[in-house]
Amino acid sequence: MTLVSATDLRTLIDGDAPVVVCDVRFYLADHDQGRREYDEGHIPGARFVDLHTELAGGEGGGRHPLPSVDVFTELLGRLGIDPATHVVAYDSAGGAIAARLWWMLRSIGHSQASVLDGGIAAWTAAGFPLTDEVPVVDPVEFPPRPDWTGTVDADAVAQSVEFGGTVIDARAPERFRGEHEPIDARAGHVPGATNIFHGANLGLDGTHLPLPELAQRFAGVGQSPIVYCGSGVTACHDLLVLSLVGVDQARLYPGSWSEWSADPDRPVATGDA
Q1: Both ends of the chain: CA-CA distance in Å?
Q2: Tens digit of pLDDT for each residue in 57-81?
Q3: Alpha helices of 6-129 — where are they, by DSSP H?
Q4: Which of 103, 237, 255 is nearest to 190 (CA)?
Q5: How far is CA 79 from CA 10, 230, 263, in A?
Q6: Sheet arrangement for strand 47-48
Q7: Per-residue pLDDT reduced to its tens digit, 217-248
Q8: Strand ranges of the sheet holding 226-228, from the earlier edge strand across to the other edge
Q9: Contacts from 216-221 at CB under 8 Å and sequence distance 24+?
Q10: Is 22 designated active site?
């Protein structure tokens, strides 16, 4: 199950199969806000996972480079996650942050990974409780994995554009067009990229659009598009939806716009083109 409802998650928590819930709330303007909100109230049993320090921090370019696979599997072990564990991630952004953990798990071959549809708001709307109790976790051993799969670098992005491949920019339209750039070195987008804003994957209630509508949003992208965003995080939300609609060979450009725009030798386009 790529997406689980609040009721599905409650059933998983109450069941016998091993499940670990991860709270991945994160706010770019205030890196500590997610932890504060977790301390105030979270889904019972959930472990807090910090995007900025635990799901990023490697040697790659961009604002949130992937950690090494060894560092990530060590984190999984500390969280009590082994290859038999079903991991469910949630956030307060409709899955835009939680999808990063989902993608990282899938990238190393851990298929038992899901995102809570609608995030913590869906959980509370269903009448389920929150707690401020931090669970005691028994560490386990997560076996080594060779490397990330499904990633590309900036040269591969440029080559894809040159030869007519699909490159998807998951940022908001005004950032894609270059009208507003709050954080990165230059405004605009990778020339030839198509803008499919991750936030528009959601309905007004914060849950994902029906599958036919999602399929329509990504119609014509082919079977192996490259997806980027500002720093390789919200791009994972488009990758999650691509998985839902049957596009399983989509790839992530982890460096994303924060890396591309910082390189003066990389071209930049603006507007809708």
Answers
A1: 36
A2: 988 899 999 999 999 999 999 999 9
A3: 6-14, 33-40, 51-54, 69-78, 98-107, 119-125
A4: 255
A5: 19, 28, 37
A6: 3-4, 113-116, 86-90, 19-23, 47-48
A7: 999 999 999 999 999 999 999 999 999 999 99
A8: 194-195, 167-169, 226-228, 251-252
A9: 217/241, 218/242, 218/245, 218/247, 221/166, 221/168, 221/194, 221/196, 221/247, 221/250
A10: no
Q: List the Cα angle 245/241/168 in 5-degree steps.
A: 105
CA distances 272 to 148, 175, 193, Å, are: 32, 11, 10
SS3 state at 89: strand
Residues 6+ apart with CB under 8 A from 181: 175, 187, 188
Q: What are phi and psi of 231, to 5 degrees?
A: -145, 20
Catalytic one among 22, 99, 172, 229?
229
Provide the token pair at 156.
């591969």
pTM over 0.85: yes
What pLDDT, on a 0 to 100 scale, did the predictor assign at position 168?
A: 98
CA dihedral 160, 224, 226, 221 (to 10 degrees): 90
Indicate the length of the chain as a whole number.
273
Bridge-based pairing of strands 226-228 and 167-169 is parallel
Phi, psi of 214 (to 5 degrees): -65, -40
